């Protein structure tokens, strides 16, 4: 059975975690939110596209919506981190569409190493956001929004100032697996089989599956469907295309095939998902 690869959020999520033991994600996943992550202690491995990053204290990553990623413990038995998931529609209730676009346009997916001073400043914003997130009362949500807006402004300044941040270098995954990942990302709408992928890099099925799983944290089929479903998700939200066209554009043999895989992953049909998303859209501003 396909593991759920999508994690939806309807409001800000602020989460602090301290793990005293190794911990790996069960499968690669993505969000329809921006994700902001700060490593506080220990090491953590991030796999993003075809690059593996070792996150150490003071490292921060930003992911735009629909970026497939995976984190795991490799070099450290324990770790501590903060994470914020930011649904863009929540900002629409606070800002105009133009203001939201201006605030977010600098936030490209990236992995940064912050100086001690920068890390301390960012950490303080995370702590304030966490405190507001755990508060109750009519002002709690407004205070949380205020802190997160301040954090977004700060991150935009850090990204804009090339001298104030250092992009973290990552280690590329094995060239053969990179080739297959690139092939999937550009040919996901075609009929791609495990045998064809293994043949592309001249490997046996067994050897290919072992290397692919070790490099990406997902089976070949999980990764392929994750890519396809992330594209389906975007088309359901951003277009009015009928399901038959979405299925064709995203590599599914039929609407029934798309609906079966989508329901297996998300627990709802594509039509139900689209209707639910439309019902939650804020009214257009006058």
UniProtKB/TrEMBL annotation:
This protein's record includes keyword Plastid: no
Domain of life, per lineage: Bacteria
Keyword Cell wall biogenesis/degradation: no
Signal sequence interval, chain numbering: none
GO MF term list: DNA-binding transcription factor activity; sequence-specific DNA binding
Gene3D superfamilies registered for this protein in UniProt: Homeodomain-like, Jelly Rolls
UniProt keyword terms in alphabetical order: DNA-binding, Transcription, Transcription regulation
Domain HTH araC/xylS-type, residue spans: 178-276
Pfam families reported for this sequence: AraC_binding (PF02311), HTH_18 (PF12833)
Alphabetical list of PANTHER family matching this protein: ARAC-FAMILY TRANSCRIPTIONAL REGULATOR, HTH-TYPE TRANSCRIPTIONAL REGULATOR EXSA
Protein name: AraC family transcriptional regulator
Organism (species): Eisenbergiella porci
